[in-house]
Design goal:
six-stranded parallel sheet
Length: 319
């Protein structure tokens, strides 16, 4: 690669949210850089491209690529050297115009919080474990799987049901137990910082926002806004579900449907990201595509199953 090609590749295109490839071969031609999603080729021109013969060759090359539906952007090396940021901005604008013209299906990504954005799930488990221990009840990690994506009161009822104590408390007493659990949880998450964001999430969100997608959080946790603030990412979300207004727990699709409606995006144009079976069922019931993070599948399989958030790659959603 030339000096200018290296600069454009390593300082911009190789990390661009929409995937580019180098030295793409199309029939008898080799393209400097190519974006298959946008069908856009970028060619950097040195001084050798400005002879009459070279101009004629490049014109034939461009016409040939256009016959394949590929748009060609030709950029003089001098522009890269003199106005690199301007070149990058122009490419970014052109890519977004091309993708907008193709009506990219995905327009919003809706995230669960616990176990997806941060591992606060372990704090929920510890808080419930502390409460169950005080009551003399059994509660282990296998039992905790049933609580993922479930409201606080429904979680308490599951623990009581596991221990044959579903009718052991009045509704007022249950409310008090839920408050005790939440107090335990709030104390545990007091030290959360941006370093607690799970691997791959920050980059995935950044790429999605750069591509013009809207982001939302579908968590039944009433502590979601405080936790997102501690993580330093609350401003990146266009909508955060108000858990107090959600009457049905996952696998009911209510919370995902509310997020899509609040964003003004049709469900079929949304992708939900979850780490629980109940969450995946809720996403599918809402009519959305799903990404599952280390989900133990017992019913519905995620459209894109991943073993961890580190495997999230925005380019794979749009390529």
């Amino acid at each position: 690669m030339t000096k200018e090609e290296k600069q454009l590749w390593y300082k911009f295109l190789c990390d661009y949210p929409i995937k580019f490839t180098r030295q793409k071969i199309v029939e008898k031609y080799i393209l400097d850089f190519y974006c298959s999603k946008a069908k856009l080729a970028i060619e950097l021109d040195g001084s050798q491209h400005y002879t009459p013969e070279a101009k004629e060759y490049d014109q034939k090359r461009t016409e040939f690529l256009q016959s394949y539906g590929i748009e060609v952007i030709r950029i003089p090396n001098g522009d890269v050297n003199r106005n690199f940021q301007g070149v990058c901005k122009y490419i970014d604008i052109r890519i977004k115009e091309k993708l907008k013209g193709k009506a990219m299906n995905t327009k919003a990504i809706i995230f669960d919080l616990d176990g997806v954005i941060t591992d606060s799930a372990r704090y929920h488990f510890a808080a419930w474990k502390e409460l169950a221990g005080r009551l003399g009840y059994k509660f282990d990690e296998d039992d905790n799987e049933r609580l993922k994506g479930v409201s606080r009161m429904d979680s308490l009822n599951i623990i009581l049901e596991i221990n044959g104590a579903l009718d052991a408390f009045t509704e007022a007493e249950k409310e008090a137990l839920c408050t005790e659990k939440n107090d335990n949880y709030v104390n545990l998450i007091g030290g959360v910082t941006p370093e607690d964001i799970l691997p791959g999430i920050a980059k995935f969100m950044q790429d999605a926002k750069a591509a013009g997608l809207k982001l939302a959080v579908a968590s039944v946790s009433k502590n979601a806004p405080a936790l997102l603030t501690s993580l330093g990412i609350i401003d990146q979300f266009d909508y955060i579900a108000d858990a107090r207004k959600i009457s049905k727990s996952k696998p009911d699709p209510e919370i995902f449907s509310v997020c899509a409606e609040s964003l003004g995006i049709a469900p079929e144009n949304c992708i939900g990201v979850e780490d629980s079976q109940a969450g995946i069922e809720a996403i599918k019931a809402a009519g959305m595509k799903s990404i599952g993070i280390n989900v133990t599948v017992t019913s519905v399989t995620p459209d894109m199953p991943l073993s961890s958030t580190a495997e999230l790659d925005f380019a794979k959603l749009v390529d």
